[in-house]
Specification:
Chain lengths: 338, 453, 385
Amino acid sequence: MDAILIQILNGLDKGGAYALIALGLTLTFGTLGVVNFAHGALFMLGAFCAVSVQQLLTLSKSVKDESITFFDAYKDQPYLEIWWGDTGTAIIDYAVPISILFAIPIMLLIGVAMERGLIKHFYKRSHAEQILVTFGFAIVVQEIIKAFYGANPIPTPAPDIVSGSAAIGAMLGLSESLVYPWWRLIYLLFAGVVIFAVFAFLKYTTFGMVVRAGMADRETVSLLGINVERRFTIVFGIATVVAGLAGVMYAPILPPDYHMGMDFLVLSFVVVVVGGMGSLGGAVAAGFLLGILQSFASMNEIKSIFPGIDQIIIYLVAVVILLVRPRGLMGREGVMED
Amino acid sequence: MSTKDKSKDESRRDFLKATAATGIAASSPMFFVKDAYAGSHNMPFRNNPGSAKSVKFGFNVPQSGAYADEGADELRAYKLAVKHLNGEGDGGMMNTMKPMSLKGNGILGKKVEYVTGDTQTKSDAARASAKRMIEKDGVLMITGGSSSGVAVAVQGLCQEMGVIFMAGLTHSNDTTGKDKRRYGFRHFFNAYMSGRALGPVLKKEMGTDRKAYHLTADYTWGWTQEESIKNTTEELGWQTTAAVKTPVGAGDFSQYITPILNSGADVLILNHYGKDMINSLTQAVQFGLRDKQVNGKQFEIVVPLFSRLMAQGAGDNIKGILGTTNWNWSLKDKGSQAFVKSFGAEYGFPPSQAAHTCYVQALLYANACEQAGTFYPPQVIKALEGFNFDGMGNGPTEYRAEDHQCFKDVLVVRGNQNPSSQFDLLEIVQEVPRSQVEYPASMFGGELGPYVV
Amino acid sequence: MMKISLQNNAVVMLIFSAVVLTAPLWLAPIGADYPDLLQKFAIFGIFAIGFNILFGLTGYLSFGHAAFLGIGSYTAVWSFKLFTMNVLPAVILGTIMAGVFALAIGYISLRRSGIYFSILTLAFAQMSYSLAYSVLTPITNGETGLQLTMNDARVIDSLFGVEAEAGLPSTNLFGQVMSGYSGFYFCAVILIIGFYVSLKIFRSPFGLKLTAIKSNQTRMKYTGFNTRPYLLSAFVISGMYAGLAGALMSITDPLAGAERMQWTASGEVVLMTILGGVGTLIGPLLGVGIIKYFENIFSAMNPSALHEIFNFLPLWLENIVVGITRHFVGDGWHLTLGAMFMLVVIFLPGGVMEGITKLFNYIKKKLGLNRVDSEDHVSEGGDRK
């Protein structure tokens, strides 16, 4: 029973992460119709916002390291610690939450610049060309990050107070062994809030209505004297911020490295398409569905019956769903079907 | 025959002209005849430098992908080795290596040059890169790499092509076991040795009544390591609760960690390497495994193979974790110190274990040529086989003739609780003597193949 | 009387064959004339030509074609292990096996179109990759890759009393060893045949129907035309090309690894085709050439190699040039590749081929040749919408 409970929780947690990572892609891909192969790179840039903030906070004075005698070596002492002692240490400890504040404007800037400078010219080009240009962009971004930060993952721990596990079982009067990491619970909550915010924004604001109308029929909306272009820019900016936030929050779970975006790229596409093109709700539902199924498929009991099932479950589910439901879970007709 | 045998010291431009001129000859289908150089060692062999003033090494390392930093460190070590071989710099281990035939004037009087390539940590890319080095650049020896799959793939190719391969970082038993090759040599230790070395330390630190849970990367290296560690721990009297395979590059391992909480196991053994290990360890610690008490004992995590770069990526999570490593820069023997000193002076930080094994491999090959008095591969191979040496870290070492595996002391290390510098991440628990990790050459099967190909 | 025109298949084939077979000559000045790279050009050329039959003609973007490449490779190595080191059975079996898988995967995937089709093919390829890497290790030898061993059966070879060599046997075509330059010429001949078949398809009624499906499938369906068999044929043909390419990879280098089936490998052929020019006959080959050249030559340059290349410059300038360029070669080769993708697609919509066409038209205009030849493009500029 405990085993099932914790696997459900784990599935929700994974699902939340998948949904959040895919959410940005649904906006650019499902809503704007751009096949954005740079989505993974944007996710990675978010994670590197956390790394950068952490490195800024730990900006250090180099002190000669006396313990190394073979050659001149230096060790670092962060200025914050030199100036403020324990308070400085505490601030450094909160690097990841602090970086969220920085990530929002930075990612917005990156997103808007990318849309104005690059993507704008590709709305009317073929999907093939969109793939090539965004993939090229992703490689360039990755290589720049690699040049600055190296290829090795960089540890970006969560604040000490939430670095351990929450004894959920004991709190609810269930088994003691039902524990779950605080940070993953926070991530789940965070994912929920961001997803809800994006939903509400598109559903209940005039802005969102215009965007959705512009998607359906750009020309008519333009004729009404509404600047669709600018709104598309903003949507792209939002998508970038969402991708970045997903990355920032994921940094303590997966120490960031320059290649992490590519590892999530295919997954995000699968989630969005299984959810159905042009449907935010579909992507979220698909994220949770895939997360939970993957979690269960990884249980030893299941694996002993179907060896290797945990490695292919996501794709297997994708095939089954796309065969049963032609446009994924909640896809709109005519979006990216030709 | 064609451009292959031409002297290599001509300038690039001359070379281009020459290639264009001989292009017609080169493109005739009869150009490559495999058995052309079989026979005695006066016969020509592939990429024979002949009367050229220099010889070329091929450094085939990962420059992109997950192990790019490790590859970069290997490349640094190789460049240093080339310097030392050519008599530049402070000489590094050439001051401590015993016995040594090298004179600091290159190899057999020929200057050492090198070409580089990117393996991308993929067998296909690694083989393509190695082929380029052999076919285009005319290298005499290929070395490097950061994964066992790549090592086995390149080693097989080098056997077919008749070019010696000095493996870089590869830890699978297969490299010098069932996939061993006459032309392939490994200085690095292997999974079996890790298990043997860890055994007594695990017994001392955790006792004989433990329940182990394995998470294993689902490919050949992971399996051989799981098997080796399992054999060792079961000999100690430990039980194996479960051994779960995890996909390579899974990123998030949480779905494999959650079942551990209820499994009744009190030791987690992570048979992961590189990024996988960094992720799974980070996540396992977040799940509070290390704060857990199970069966009245403190829950422990063991990472059988790790490196300083991995420790760096795992940050604080590595502190106190036991594992093994081939070599660490904090070793106090003369050879290690000489190497660290010269590497540190060159680059400003100490070398990794990958850098060490690659540096040593380059020197060993060069020394074997010098000793054999020829570059003819069968003679060089014979010089390396059964070669006993010292002064290169890890104490007295032997290149075993039967499987081309080096036998030497193995380090059991622990993530340092209070590092005194940013590089001081591993604390040496024990230098396990070579006798404890030895095994019969026939244990893993395989066949070396012929000297002359 | 034969008219000398690119519309004439014989002329096209003559030029194409001449260019391919002399590749070792004209590739020498850029250092790409060594056997392995030449083989890779030819093999990936076949892969891309086949991919282009599906994508270029029908507009269906498969993101899982690498699966067929892998299947072809594994089949070929098994043919060496079980039957004979002769390459002909390997080529045939590899192509057929890939065709069988393509039939099954295509039958299912083609029930959907657009992005849904792409994801279905991607899913199948990723499943093949994951299983080949781990669970199917007995068949694929997992991460290490499927290799020849000394104690392979080789039934046919032993039947004919082929003597065992001291080392591992090499692949051969009735005695002619298939590595090195002879391997290249073998691949080149197959490339020429493959190109010819593709040319015939492009200029056949079948090809025309496929392009019609691309431009408006709905209309085709309304006229009572069943598009599925046509699409499926195109898919299977293009899968067989991939299998053929995979078999050739094993022939020139008998080791088959699972990562050949990974999505990045599928992505690579997509990128090659788009980079060169979707739907053009030659475009995909140009894309192959560019990407493989970068991967093999640019990645191998290091500062000392750059100094040699630029040593015609004055020393101070040489140092500056090397100082800048060193970031774009060696471990920075991906950066150059990415930047080039962007530049090509921004400035040359329709790929490199489009640029060449433009250049030709420009020169023609300059020379006052008013006669505007209808160019060799079945569909100009890819599948622009």
